[in-house]
Design a protein that fits this description.
The complex is a heterodimer of chains A (165) and B (351). By secondary structure, chain A is of the alpha+beta class. Chain A has a domain of 96 residues: Alpha-Beta Plaits (2-Layer Sandwich), CATH 3.30.70.3270. Helices cover 20% and strands 13% of the residues of chain A. In chain A, 13% of the residues are buried. Chain B has 351 residues and is mainly alpha-helical. Chain B has one domain. Chain B is built from 13 helices and four strands. In chain B, strands 1-2 form a two-stranded antiparallel sheet. A two-stranded antiparallel sheet of chain B has the order 3-4. In chain B, strand 3 and strand 4 form a beta hairpin. The two termini of chain B are 41 Å apart. The chains are: A alpha+beta (165), B mainly alpha (351). Chains A and B meet through helix 2 of A and helix 1 of B.
Chain lengths: 165, 351
């Protein structure tokens, strides 16, 4: 049959020549290839000691931001929790008491803010949803742990360090 | 034989036993490192500097693991299997000449446990016993995969022993002796009477056949069909756990060490190294030459162990019919032809 593309290639199963049948040249060739790789530099990144550079839009662990005066930006509006497709975020809001103006920017703040890192898919929808620019996924890789309960990160791990420190 | 002689022999046996265990231990580490390097990786590097303590960690893990004996297995034979495998692996080293005679305080110490005049036959006997460990273990597990692995091991070992024996016959025609001590001593130096003294230069084809058969006898890749995990789960040691599995793996590495030693002794001059004459003529003490010889032998052994691993991480596994084809249709006729050629050359060209 004529081929339409003229790209048809006829393959014939030729009987092996003597050199091919004794295998040894092919084996020696293979051995030389593996020996070449034996002396090649390994491509491994030795992870905990050595880290690969992240790209600029890498999404890692979340951090809750503070404003320029060191007050927490989050106002516990719940939009992040609402936007989260994995339902990883929960929060309990509280009203700011007089005298706490240095701590929280708005009258309402998150008393408890928890992210379950096992549920989180690092999609970044929470940072897109946030009207206060309070949450960003600009951290490192979330470290491994032994217990499920230790993957629920509270404010102690999420909130940025205060400015004066 | 006096008491000191017996004590010296006993010490030698213990030392050789410990060395073979140590080498087997570090072969597991070397295997993983070499595999890693050939695949552009790093390999084990967590336990100690460069992962040097990895074999100890592996050993500790093996001992700590739960020991499972399947309910429907033959419990006695299930334990006998790995014991036999490791025992036959260890006793093979008894006839290897590890070096010339050391003289300590006017007392000569032969660095060979026993120089029996049928040393080569002894090696063959031990090697063919080795398959019983695999057979018994595979059969006693009462598992079809184990049984298939055991049957494969048995038929493979029997097939390749024939070619191995035939390749040795051609070697024995040139050496004229079965004693390993004498074979090693005959390869003294490197060059004499216009030709190399090492047997590999007298029997290149025989050596090729021998090394292929050695790969098959030790169940190493590309002939590792008895334990081939893509078809038989784990082969004959599917049901084994804990240190009994460890003994099977250990036996494989000790076998590798012993067969490397046998190859070095039979074909690569054993403890002989080029330039022995010059050292002796220059007045270097005989003990030093002996020690250098032992180091040379171990260098050859390590090269062969490296070669075993190098081949393992290069070649894919044979199919079962290809394995049998190679053994029966290629290696045995080649070995017979080698015997004929050797006979003709010895009769008509070298008087």
């Amino acid at each position: 049959m004529e081929s339409f593309s003229n790209k048809r290639k006829v393959l014939e199963a030729k009987p092996l020549s003597f050199g091919e049948r004794i295998y040894l040249p092919a084996i020696l060739k293979g051995l030389s290839i593996t020996l070449k790789h034996f002396f090649r530099k390994s491509v491994t990144v030795r992870y905990p000691e050595q880290k690969r550079e992240f790209s600029e839009n890498f999404r890692g662990m979340h951090s809750l931001k503070r404003d320029e005066e060191g007050r927490e930006r989050c106002t516990a509006c719940g939009l992040c929790a609402l936007s989260c497709p994995a339902e990883a975020i929960t929060m309990i809001s509280a009203e700011r008491k007089p005298g706490e103006e240095k701590l929280y920017r708005e009258e309402k703040y998150a008393a408890v803010y928890e992210i379950n890192m096992l549920r989180c898919i690092f999609c970044g929808l929470c940072e897109e949803a946030c009207p206060k620019e309070a949450i960003y996924l600009d951290g490192d890789i979330v470290p491994a742990d032994y217990l499920r309960k230790d993957f629920i990160y509270g404010k102690d791990k999420l909130v940025e360090a205060p400015l004066n420190q | 034989m006096g008491t000191t002689d017996i004590l010296v022999k006993f010490a030698l046996i213990v030392v050789i036993f410990l060395i073979s265990l140590l080498i087997a231990m570090y072969s597991t580490y070397a295997e993983r490192k070499i595999a890693a390097f050939m695949q552009d990786r790093v390999g084990p590097n967590r336990a100690g500097p460069f992962g040097i303590l990895q074999p100890l960690a592996d050993g500790a893990k093996m001992f700590m693991k739960e020991e499972i004996i399947p309910a429907n297995s033959n419990k006695f034979l299930f334990i006998v299997g790995p014991s036999l495998a490791i025992m036959t692996a260890c006793i093979g080293s008894a006839v290897i000449p590890w070096g010339q005679t050391l003289v300590i305080g006017g007392h000569p110490i032969d660095l060979q446990v026993t120089d029996i005049n049928v040393g080569v036959l002894y090696i063959f006997g031990v090697v063919s016993l080795g398959v019983y460990g695999i057979m018994i273990g595979g059969w006693a597990s009462n598992n079809k995969y184990s049984l298939l692995g055991a049957i494969r091991a048995a038929s493979q070992n029997i097939s390749y022993e024939i070619a191995m024996g035939l390749s040795i016959i051609a070697l024995l025609m040139t050496t004229g002796t079965l004693s390993l001590g004498k074979i090693a001593a005959d390869q003294h130096g490197f060059w004499s009477h216009g030709w190399f003294t090492w047997n590999v230069f007298k029997q290149p084809l025989g050596f090729l056949i021998f090394i292929v058969c050695a790969f098959a006898e030790t169940n190493r890749a590309p002939f590792d069909l008895p334990e081939c995990e893509t078809e038989l789960v784990g082969g004959y040691h599917t049901e084994y756990s804990s240190m009994k599995l460890g003994f099977y793996l250990f036996a494989e590495y000790i076998n590798m060490f012993v067969s490397s030693a046998v190859m070095a002794t039979l074909y690569f001059g054993g403890y002989n190294f080029p330039g022995m004459h010059y050292l002796a003529d220059a007045g270097v003490a005989q003990n030093w030459i002996t020690i250098i010889g032992v180091i040379a032998l171990f260098a050859k052994i390590f090269f062969f162990i490296f070669f075993f691993m190098w081949v393992r991480w290069t070649l894919p596994r044979f199919r079962y019919d290809q394995l049998m084809d190679l053994g029966w249709k290629s290696l045995i006729p080649l070995a017979i032809a080698n015997i004929v050629i050797t006979g003709v050359v010895m009769n008509y060209f070298i008087k």
